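B., you asked whether I could sanity-check this one before it goes into the benchmark set. Here's the sequence:
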Amino acid sequence: MNANIIQSAWGIVYYMAEDKKPRFLLIKRHAMSGKIEWVAPKGKMQKGETPEQAAVREVSEETSLKTEHLLVRQKIGSTSLRSTETQKGRMDKDVTYFLMYYDGSPEAVEIQPGEGYLGIHKRATINEVLGLIYYQNMRELFIEADNVIRSLAVKDNFVKNL
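And here's what the prediction gave me:
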């Protein structure tokens, strides 16, 4: 692992709504590009952390959700950003994305303004997510997450019916 490359982890967090369909957690932020955008909770890995541990910690820190209510279902993907231009200069970053199931109360989400976050969140259906997320690669990750959730639901129903 190159020490000059920032290691980051994201949590694509969902819970099952009363209609038995997933709702994804999005946070509104002011991006380094100057745009206002909707994103999944994320952050930098700390020394000694695995990407999965960093994702759970960051989701908990940014949303006030308790870690014991966050279940990492699986890794959804990863990206490498090289020589990306930001307001702070050039940046190299590796990002790992995890699908996380939240089994607590959706009302427990509390976003503190800071680090670009505006203190606003949304629990969105996949169709709403696709209309809110600016970047195509992020929309594709949410589509993959939705497909995994559907697959898990089919498996769970199969096991229940055995």
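One thing to flag: Helices lie at 51-63, 126-132, 136-160. Otherwise nothing jumped out at me.
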